[in-house]
Amino acid sequence: MAKWKFVLLPAVAKLGFWGIGAIALLDSSTIPVPMDFFVAVYVWNDKSHFWLYCLLAATGSAIGGLAPYGLGRAGGELFLLKRVNRARYERMRTRFENQEFLAMMIPSMLPPPTPWKAFVFAAGVFEMRVVPFLAAVFCGRMVRWLALSLLVFKLGPGAVEVVAHHGLALLGIVGGLAAIGFAWWWMKKRRSGKLEE
Asked: With contact defined as beta carbons under 8 Å apart, do 153 and 53 qualify?
């Protein structure tokens, strides 16, 4: 954390609001960066514009994610098939295609050590359309960093450590909320299907 604090933070601080978007783009596309730390620092130092930092970070993350997504789309199928058998691959494809938005949004909400780039790569392999991909990543990241901002208001920049140490608990909470959301969506879909009949 210290090397990022003393090397990258002073450089991007000169970019003002745009700095957080640039860091997020870098993190999603190539070099892993402790994004929660940077979001927390920006929000703590300028609380009145917390929403803008979350917005720019989510946008940068979505755009940066196009790099691993593109790799998956270009030739990821062969890469995956070397690691899983065809039957498992087809099951993964079916699950992803049935709920592609949630399959991308939920991992985007979760803190490390969630293997986010693996989900992004899979989105490319299974040919998720670009606009829903961008929207799912943006929504997931926005929820994540808005929640982090609320923690920062309460706990200060140390909120990042809370997220890191209680990642599994947060994963359970988000998973539970996702399950409730899915159940609500499924019931609504079934009811509308019955009405059409």
From this structure: no
Q: What region, left, alpha or beta, does residue 127 occupy, with left being phi > 0 and alpha being psi -120 to 50 degrees?
A: left
Contacting residues for 57 by C-beta, under 8 A, at least 6 apart: 20, 21, 23, 24, 35, 38, 39, 141, 145
> What value does the mean pLDDT of the chain take?
80
**Residue 92 in tokens:** 């993964």
Q: Which two tokens stand for residue 192?
A: 């509308």
Regions of the chain with pLDDT less than 70: 1-13, 157, 159-186, 188-197
* DSSP class per residue in 140-163: HHHHHHHHHHHHHHHHGGGHHHHH
Whole-number Å distance between alpha carbons of 175 and 96: 16
Q: What is the pLDDT of residues 16-73, one digit of tens each?
A: 778 899 889 988 998 888 888 888 888 888 889 999 999 999 999 999 999 999 999 8
The dihedral sign for the CA sequence 68, 54, 13, 7: negative
